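Much of our argument rests on the idea that a fold can be written as discrete symbols. In the encoding step, the backbone of a single protein was reduced to a row of integers, each denoting a local shape. This step matters because it turns folding into a mapping between discrete strings. For completeness, the protein is quoted in full, as a sequence line and a line of structure tokens:
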Amino acid sequence: MPCLTKKFVSVQGTLNASGQPVVKYGDFVKDPVVTNTFEAPFGILRSARKRKIVAFDGELLLSPVHDQVNITLLKDTL
């Protein structure tokens, strides 16, 4: 699943100053592709963060409270 997360952040995100794709948590969890693909979007993000594929602030992300938190793609490959 981290591969699908990487693909979504790359396609839906914008580039930050370092050239890394970034997407808002709210955009991630509200996207129809994500909601139809992932049963637990935050669990997928937490797993990807453990593997140092993505980075985000906080231990727990909940929508709508954390909709403006940036999810940054750290790796282009797995």
Q: What stands out?
A: The longest strand covers residues 21-24. Residues 35 and 49 are 19 Å apart (CA to CA). The chain has one domain: 2-73. The chain is about 40% helix and 15% strand.
